[in-house]
Amino acid sequence: MDFSVPLSWVATLFAQTSPGTQAALSGAPMHDQRGWQVILVTVICSCIAQLAKIVTKLLRTGHLDLRLLAKTGGMPSSHSCCTVGMAVSVGLIEGFNSVSFAIALGLAMIVMYDAAGVRRTVGLQAKVLNQIMTELFSEHPKLSSERIKEFLGHTPVEVFVGAALGTVIAIVFNSWALSAFPRV
User: Fold this and answer.
1) Engineering a disulfide at 85: which of 37, 51, 170, 183 sits with its beta carbon 3.0 to 4.6 angstroms away?
2) Which residue range forms the structural domain that includes residue 97?
């Protein structure tokens, strides 16, 4: 059996480029290329979600805990916020029926499942292991004092709120970007 692909077919495949690539190759203005919006939305989503955790804890406890900027878990899920914000941004730019949106949405779903499922389960297992370590090695202070990080994941509510926040941020930012940098 011959599985070779005709060279002309490969050349045709690589000659077909996306509208963004065609614009870049033709020397079109930079504001026609909107990939920067996806990157900015993702970064903004991460920053706002992490800052929301700090503000929430400040209002709840009265203590400002800047360490939350680098910690996982908590309300809202910054992972969900980032990936859903990215997916919605891609959908607004490329269309919600595009391959790019399908890939971004698939990634967001995997991340959200992981945050609420696998990572949460690992956190619960760490809690049990810490209890076992404390009980079994109570006479060995060094062994019983070493603890595994227990809260790694998110509750489904935290994931949902993060996804909703990412959606809102993407819509607001992309609406602003379209008005500030209209397509030619």
Assistant:
1) 170
2) 34-112+156-180
